[in-house]
Amino acid sequence: MSILSLRDVRFSFPGWPPTVEGANLEVEEGAFHCLVGRSGCGKTTLLKLAAGLLAPNAGHVDFRSRHPQAPGRDIGFVFQSPNLLEWRSVIDNVLLPVALHRRPTAQERDRACGLLAQLGLAAHAHKVPGQLSGGQQSRVALARALVLQPSLLLLDEPFAALDAITREELQRDLQRMRHEAGTTVLFVTHDIAEAVYLADRVDVIEGGRIAQQIPIALPSRNAGVRYSAGFGRYCIQVRDALHLEAVPA
Question: What pTM did the predictor assign?
């Protein structure tokens, strides 16, 4: 059953050619999709349409058979930058989606502390963002997006600015936490290896539409799978779909 559906979606900013043109996408409940494509192909715009942050000029965007409303409890969004409030503590940043509407309950505060513990940040709950590393700030942003227990999590290149080791750690944490919660994920990335490691389907975007859909069936998502022949074949398949120059043998 689809949790998110985009049908013949078109979107253009005033005075510009369409950024998204005739896009069709079905995301099943519990799935993990990665959107990949060249810069300017419409990845982030598609993500914002899915979140309800933008309204299509034509076509339909349905979340659980209704138009998505932003901001909403059932959709979490993680941007390229953590966008933390520097004057608030880590725990208060995580609880911000709740605090915008009312005082957080003890149960919600416990949930936020639990998310920080899962992400290795329990000891940093009362620090301010300026006392954290870039990777730690990204973990806080992820916890903030998950604190309302959304059914759909949307992420726009959240790990792009991090070093390779921290990025792998966060990819692992995201996979583990979404499996535990049963969350559906739509993840934008430029990194082919990241897409193949995370996704059960890679959606290749070209010219503002979904040009190709590549199912990913790997036996596991541990660190070793990145060096397997199957992983390499999927990466080559995605590269080919993006019309990239072949990798020399």
Answer: 0.90
